[in-house]
Amino acid sequence: LVKGPPHSAGANYTLTLPNDTGTSGQLLTTNGSGVTSWATVDASPTFQATADGAIADGDPVVIQADGTVHKAAATVTEHTPSNGSEINVDTDSSKDYSSVYNTGENLHVVFYRDGVSGGLESRVVTLSGDTVTMSSTTRQISLSVDDPQSAFIENGGSGNLVVVTYEKSGRCKAVASTITGSAGSEDLSPGSEKDVNDTGYSPKIVAVDNGNKAVICYENSGLRARLCEFSGTMITTQAERDAFTDRSVDFFTMASNGTNKILCAFLDSATNASKGKAVVGTISGTTLTFGTPVVFADTHPGVNITEQMISYDEHLDKFLIFYRDQSDSEDLKAIVATISGTSVTFGTPADVETDSNEMGQAIYDPVMKKHLLIYNNTTDDQYQVRVATISGTSVSISSATTLEAMSNSSVRTGCSYNPDEQRFLFLRRTPSNTKASSLKTSTSVTKLTTENYIGISNGAYADGATATVQIVGSVDDAQSGLTPGQSYFVQNDGSLALTVDAGIGSVFAGTAVSATKLIVKG
User: Fold this and answer.
1) Any idea what DSSP says for residue 155?
2) What count of other Cβ atoms lies within 10 Å of the Cβ of residue 379?
3) Which of 336, 326, 334, 335 is CA-nearest to residue 356?
């Protein structure tokens, strides 16, 4: 097609065509004055610019204000774990505490058993950088309770529900609450106390099914569980299910992959045969089923394991079980667990702490993609933390970092992660009160926005090198594991996924045409 200036009817124009037929892939072009020629069109358009930092082949790339290009992955910095400023949550020698982060409200809720009344109380806590502030209201939930454990429930996407479970008079109870009030005076508005089971001890709770349901597990002549559903603050429980029917269950903990699987780790304390075991629970609709328990510590007198001593690695789809080996000088150990169907397999346990200790907590840091193991070192009278890194089915443990001196070895820590502040809320007990502070372990700086993605790196380039970026219309061939015909989005960590990263927004990377190839779009 030749586009010319407007002309009157009957005007004549001369179009000069080339004498040859050109080559494959060429198009006929014009100089605007009627003279045409063959030209080659770039079938895989690219853009060149100076690399700011190293870029790998196949990395999604962003353009920066100074014209340089940078990989889309956030820059992660690992810090020596450190506390921020401290506040007193309660001054009545409280214990058995739990903390949960409410993503809808960007607030933490702390539950604890008051040391004087024995009642279950709560406070709403705000974390901003290294500073922690607490609401002016103390909410009493119930009286004479033990072992409060909490979870955040999305409640159909409303993002405003926290649930606490506890033991009261030999019964397992639960209460769901919304957060009310303005900044600085937030409070809980709890629903009715719900009997999860009329007999049972030490209930634990995890959110499942993308946070719209929860599983509550408890001891009742074995290890039992119920799937719970939520309508506002009302709780509906499904039929009781058996996770382990032997009456000799003692200590236990559990975690969820956030969707349809939970993993319960426990002590089977049968006489002369004490073993650490784990069992997989599967949620399908409103049905909860369990597989067969598998041994992870074949020792006598077994293991000691309590609430929050198991964490889930969302990037590797693996669990880390943290426990005390009673048969090996009561050393603290960690072991990797991998779910396959309705069963679970384990790696080789690694020593965490060989000094005298009290049990602690395993938590996952989603920024550095590693686990934190916090515990009480009673030899040194310190709260300490170690970083655990999973590789395959193995785990490596860092040296210990002291967080704070302690003075009561019989208490446990409590943590909940705040993704907006990239900090944990860290709870622990001192001689006269319960303290809370921020815990900084890693931070990330994001380069990617919904506007600056330009394409995929066409090679590996060092900092300062001239990088070639495959832009819209080109086909990148340096990917793996893609599904042809599917749309992929750039994630905050620089990977490609089928879903939008909620923290960044929609950054459309392109459409897969094979397992290794992506048509670049923007």
Assistant:
1) T
2) 11
3) 326
CB 61 within 8 A of CB 472: no
CA distance 140 to 147: 15
Structure tokens at 61: 């790339």
What is the rounded CA–CA span in Å between residue 37 and residue 508? 37
Taking the C-alpha atoms of residue 226 and residue 237, their distance in angstroms, rounded to an integer, is 6
pLDDT band at 19 (very low <50, low <70, confident <90, very high): confident
What residue has token string 């000088």? 329
Closest CA to 327 of 400, 253, 247, 272: 272
Half-sphere exposure of residue 338: CA atoms within 13 angstroms, side-chain side: 13
With tokens 């033990």, the residue in question is 146
Q: In this predicted model, what pLDDT tens digit does every residue of 328-356 receive, in sequence order?
A: 999 999 999 999 999 999 999 999 999 98
CB environment 340-356: b (16+ within 10 A), e (fewer): eeeebebbebbebbebe
**DSSP letters spanning 158-222:** T--EEEEEEEETTEEEEEEEEEES-TT--EEEE---EEEESS-EEEEEEEEGGGTEEEEEEESSS
Angle in degrees, CA 483, 486, 491, rounded to 5: 90
Rounded to an integer, what distance in angstroms lies between the CA atom of residue 97 and that of residue 94? 8
Identity at 437, one-letter amino acid code: S
pTM of the model: 0.83
Task: For 479-513, write each residue's pLDDT tens digit.
Answer: 999 999 999 999 988 999 999 988 789 999 999 99
Total length of the chain: 522
CA dihedral angle for residue 496, residue 500, residue 501, residue 502, rounded to 10 degrees:
180
Partners of 302 in the β-ladder: none
**DSSP 8-state code for residue 501:** B
Tokens of 508: 């459309």
State the sign of the Cα–Cα–Cα–Cα dihedral 404, 428, 262, 279: positive
Distance CA 522, CA 515 (A): 20
Inter-CA distances, 40 with 19, 23, 350, Å? 17, 9, 61
Q: What DSSP string describes 454-487?
A: EEEESS-B-TTSEEEEE-TT-EE----S--TT-E
| Average pLDDT of every residue of the chain | 89
| Spatial separation of the C-alpha atoms in residues 70 and 53, rounded to whole Å | 6
- Give the amino acid at 280: V
